[in-house]
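F.,

This is the one I mentioned.
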């Protein structure tokens, strides 16, 4: 008797996977780029630097301050952050990543204050202001008091916000006191800077109360701020 042949399953041999040499190269170079990026960020954030706060372009500071006021009152947080970063890079010469980290704290403080309704709310901005000034002090060749600078910054914000409760001249004095601390100079030498800056604020406030700040108003504000920062530059460099 014959036995029927057993049908065996066909065995197929899987073809070997194609090698992807490009993938290995991508991973290799991607890892190298990541390491380089992390090294750059660490160097940028933590390597000590020194700069002079007296060496700034007054006209550029004024241009940026006008732009920052517009962003602040327009509640344009991202734009304000970018403008602060630019100011820190170009005028305080902070490197890229550090300028962004410091600008974030300053912009955060500004909007914490903006949303406040009283001194207790306003003081919630102090930790970010202290962090901001601590970063400035770390690169500055002027030995100012970080805590006092942060409190003076917040104080002029409050005087400006509550201007109807304050006597004429209070805002100018508050503005001069801040710069006097930062540059370790008598406040009287910085009075013109403070007066022109306060006048620019007064125009913005009055026009906003009347219904809106026009482009012509912003041009006048910008002119006053240019005069203000030129005056500060002259005052802090007069003995050099």
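My design for it:
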């Amino acid at each position: 008797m014959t036995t029927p042949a057993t049908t065996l399953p066909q065995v197929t041999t899987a073809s070997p996977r194609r090698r992807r040499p490009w993938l290995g190269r991508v991973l290799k170079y991607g890892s190298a780029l990541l390491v380089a990026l992390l090294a750059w960020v660490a160097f940028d954030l933590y390597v000590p630097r020194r700069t002079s706060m007296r060496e700034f372009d007054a006209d550029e500071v004024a241009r940026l301050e006008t732009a920052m006021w517009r962003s602040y009152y327009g509640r344009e947080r991202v734009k304000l952050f970018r403008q602060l970063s630019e100011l820190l890079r170009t005028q305080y010469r902070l490197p890229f990543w550090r300028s962004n980290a410091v600008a974030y704290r300053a912009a955060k403080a500004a909007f914490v204050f903006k949303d406040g309704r009283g001194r207790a709310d306003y003081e919630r901005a102090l930790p970010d202001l202290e962090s901001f000034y601590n970063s400035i002090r770390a690169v500055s060749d002027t030995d100012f008091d970080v805590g006092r600078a942060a409190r003076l910054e917040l104080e002029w914000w409050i005087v400006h916000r509550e201007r109807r409760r304050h006597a004429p001249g209070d805002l100018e004095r508050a503005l001069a006191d801040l710069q006097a601390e930062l540059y370790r100079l008598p406040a009287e030498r910085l009075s013109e800077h403070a007066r022109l800056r306060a006048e620019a604020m007064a125009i913005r406030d009055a026009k906003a109360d009347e219904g809106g700040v026009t482009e012509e108003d912003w041009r006048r504000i910008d002119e006053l701020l240019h005069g203000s920062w030129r005056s500060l530059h002259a005052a802090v460099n007069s003995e050099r």
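Residues 58-236 form one domain.

Talk soon.
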